[in-house]
What does this fold into?
Amino acid sequence: MADAAEHPTLRVATFNASMEGGNYVARGDTPTGGELAAALASGDHPQLRNVAAIIRRVRPDILLINEFDYTADPTGAIDAFRAGYLEAPRADVAPIAYPHAFTAPVNTGVDSGFDLDRDGVASGRGQDAWGYGLYPGQYGMVLLSRYPIDSANARTFQH
It folds into this structure.
């Protein structure tokens, strides 16, 4: 049988982590967009710890995290997740580092200017947004990688 060193493995994963504002507000409250950043700032949010533990155990080389809100400071949110959850020491699971990251604005929660759901109100959010979202950036995504990302040539298909 061939040696594993002769046939290196590249592990790629997607993870719908549900790191969107609705998870960080009280039941019945409407998220506005800053909730993920606040949860990340705590450094000890249970849901974020659990997401990080799964990533640390699976250990993908390239990881697309879906439903990671695109925020006003996307690099800050990504760095807070990497430093506070993925790279921080924990007794139960080894840290993992992703030196490369990519994110871009998404169309979720972006006001379309139209009454897309035909309820008589052009609310600019929810079903009247270009992509369903209660605020711009809800349900965004982040690509984390152990390998360089050619961000200059990435396409979002937003425009």
